[in-house]
Amino acid sequence: MIGIISYLVFFTTVASILGIAVLGLNLQWGNTGLFNGGVVASFGAGAYGTLMLGGPAQDGHLGGFGLFYPLALLGGMLAAGVLAWIVGKLTLRLRHDYLAIATFGVAVAFENVMRNATSITGGAQGIRGFERPLRDVLGDGFTYNAVFLAGVLVVLLLVYVFLERLTVSPFGRLLRAIREDETAARSLGKSPDRIRLISFVTGSVIIGLAGGLYGTFYAFVSPQDVLPILTFQIWAMLIVGGAGNTRGALAGAFLIWGAWTFSGWALSRFAPVEAQLYTGSIQFVLIGMVIVGMLLWRPQGLFPERLIVSQPGRNREKTQVEGFT
Amino acid sequence: MDNAILTLNGVSRSFGDFKAVDDVSLTIREGSITGLIGPNGAGKSTLFNVIAGELSPTGGSVDFLGTNVSRLTPDERFALGLGRTFQIPRPFGRMSVLENVMLAPMDQAGETLLGAVLGKGRIRDQEEAIRKRAFEVLDFLTLRHVADQPAAKISGGQMKLLELARVLMGDPRLILLDEPAAGVNPALTEILIEKIEELNRNGKTFLIIEHDMDFVMRHCDPVIAMAEGQVVFEGTSVEAQSNPILLDAYLGAPLDA
Ligand SMILES: Nc1ncnc2c1ncn2[C@@H]1O[C@H](COP(=O)(O)OP(=O)(O)OP(=O)(O)O)[C@@H](O)[C@H]1O
Ligand SMILES: [Mg+2]
Questions:
Q1: Same-domain status, B84 and B188
Q2: What pLDDT was estimated at residue B107?
């Protein structure tokens, strides 16, 4: 029983952290139409930033500033934001598939830098020895994980409220207009380039926050945590849940993370031994099939975007957009 | 002319070797409803795109309200009071018709990230005012009953009206309309013209591309005609109706106005 509960706590924590990242991607893609193929770079910047700033002094890599935890987390978000700003400045003029390729490339480069710039990043060993906040008070056991989960849920809620308010605001309307038709938006006096950059950086900061929490949870980050598969997972969550719908994005995070964990368990349990060597690859293929299948059969996701009549502070009228592809 | 709102000085635009707009110089008077006519492919829409900043000219310059705007982006030009519609409507498809229209006003307090999340009273008041105006515009253009529809789902004619509704919400001083009556039913066209003339009396200047000669001859003055990228006629609508070039090349037969 305790085993199940503590597993559920663990599962919910990871799913919620990934959910925060999906919300960040939803701001970029769902609301603004920015095809970020390098989600993991922001995630990694947040994780590495947080652990380097908040960890104890140690040999072998940069960092160990032992900052007060919230500051370290903010620093991780800042790192993700600065990286996104630089990448955005260079690539946001690119559209759609080109932007996707460029950002994917950035993420691969990021992973390589983390792996090879050993004196800064700890190389393949990653950043170790991070002391999780409040550990001296809460210990390392179930209590800690339960409290940590509560903290993650609070952060998730804050991000959710922030994004929901944003969606129904005139700013959200502006993002959607740029997503729908940049030329028309420009002809009505809006500046797409600036707004796209703001959306990209804000989304990346949120993804960086998720990365920071992820690193904190495991008290460890290494190049293995910033592989392209994570980008695909987060995309699958958004596509399955429903791009443009904050709640859908969250639901997608839990569904896909559940399916991922379950498939891993099922493969290890029931697949022939020879196949078990390839569990990761099989899951990779499965997630690709989920994305493709979803795009073919229900491109709007399980929870399609609602047609929002922006009315900040009012009881909002929401009608579902039907049959969009 | 002393009250020029828009002046084009030798404006050209080529696509490869093809000169879609070829050395066009003209002046639009403030307070006028100027008609721009010409056969298909004459370069009218291309000229609009150059004026609005969507396309950069390959030669010449555009002056709006006495300043050279040739290097400004479309949004910067809109901010100065230069608005336009598109010949082929460009609705924000997955947004409601109401939202399409509410987007247009400039300088909305809630259009910044922080304002959107932190702002309260001011934004709400502004939104209420914008919504009220939006409904007025939608009422007038007979779009009110589709206010909550996704813009991608309304008819082609309604999309043309939506183009107009959006630009009107932005309140520009000079409005470029690219075939506003195409695909709009005749009764509504009449209302449309009335509205244009009313706005015009209140000080707005219009430059209108239109193939409906009846529309142009009755309501536009002066009239400019283009063919093969060049201005081939400039004059009053009365002159236009008796101009041999126009009769021959474009109008086909004399009109009874
Ligand atoms: N982006 C472009 N690339 C290449 N050629 C173009 C482009 N835009 C317009 N043209 C060409 O320029 C010429 C003028 O086109 P334009 O759309 O300005 O004509 P128009 O006078 O508006 O015609 P219509 O009355 O049919 O709308 C056409 O021959 C067209 O093919
Ligand atoms: Mg045209």
A1: yes
A2: 82
What token pair was written down for A119?
């004196």
Mutate to test the pocket of ligand 1, among B15, B55, B231 (most ligand atoms within 8 A of CB): B15
Contacts of A203 (CB under 8 A, 6+ apart): A24, A25, A26, A27, A28, A32, A34, A36, A42, A84
Measure A273 CA to nearest chain B CA, in Å.
49
Q: Tokens 């935890």 map to which residue?
A: A69
Distance from CA of B50 to the nearest CA of A (A): 12
Residue A237: strand, helix, or coil: helix
CB contact under 8 A, A312 and B84: no
Which residue range(s) make up the domain with A176? 2-227
Average pLDDT on A20-37 reads: 96
B99 & B69 share domain: no
A170, A190, A309: residue with CB nearest B98:
A309
Helix, strand or coil, per DSSP, at residue B203: coil
Domain span including residue B114: 92-153
Is B48 contained in some domain? yes
Strand order in the sheet with B223-227: B82-84, B174-178, B205-209, B33-37, B223-227, B230-235
One domain for residues B30 and B130:
no
Q: Is residue A168 part of a domain?
A: yes
Contact residues, chain B, for A305 at CB < 8 Å: 94
Which whole number is the average pLDDT over A303-307? 85
Residue B104 and residue B87 share a domain: no
Residues B77 and B195 occupy one common structural domain: yes
How many CB atoms within 10 Å of residue A142? 14
Please list, residue by residue across A8-37, b when 16 or more beta carbons sit within 10 angstroms of its beta carbon and e when fewer do.
ebbebbbbbbbbbbbbbbbbbbbbbbbbbb
Please report how many Cα atoms fall inside a 13 Å half-sphere around the Cα of residue A129, on the Cβ side: 15
Ligand 1 atom closest to the CA of B226, numbered from 1: 21
What average pLDDT score do residues B207-213 get?
Answer: 91
The stretch A83-87 carries a mean pLDDT of: 94
| Domains contained in chain A, number | 1
Q: A269 or A158: which carries more pLDDT confidence?
A: A158
| pLDDT the model gives residue B254 | 45
Q: Is the pLDDT of residue A171 over 50?
A: yes
Instruction: Based on the fold, state whether residues B83 and B99 are members of the same structural domain.
Output: no
Q: Which of residues 267-306 of A touch B (CB under 8 A)?
A: 305
Per the model's pLDDT, the better-predicted residue between A218 and B140 turns out to be A218
The per-residue pLDDT for range B22-46, each reduced to its tens digit, is 999 999 999 999 999 988 999 999 9
B70 plus B122 within the same structural domain: no
Is B133 an 8 Å CB contact of chain A?
no
Domain count, chain B: 2
Decide which of B153, B185, B206 is a domain's last residue. Answer: B153
Contacts of B94 in chain A (CB under 8 A): 176, 180, 244, 305, 307, 321, 324
Say what percent of chain A tops pLDDT 90: 61
* pLDDT number for residue A46: 97
Nearest CB to B148; choose among A165, A170, A319: A319
| Shortest-distance Cα residue to atom 1 of ligand 1 | B15
Residue A293 covered by a domain: no
ipTM value: 0.90
- Would residue B102 count as lying in a domain? yes
Would A303 be classed as within a structural domain? Answer: no
Contact A128, A218 (CB under 8 A): no
Query: Does the CB of A197 have a partner CB in chain B at under 8 Å?
Result: no
Nearest to A171 among B75, B84, B111 (CB): B111
Q: Dump pLDDT digits (tens) for A221-267.
A: 999 999 999 999 999 999 999 999 999 999 999 999 999 999 888 88
Say whether both B143 and B201 belong to one domain.
Answer: no
Q: Is B43 in the pocket of ligand 1 (CB under 6 A)?
A: yes
Contact A180 B94 (CB under 8 A): yes
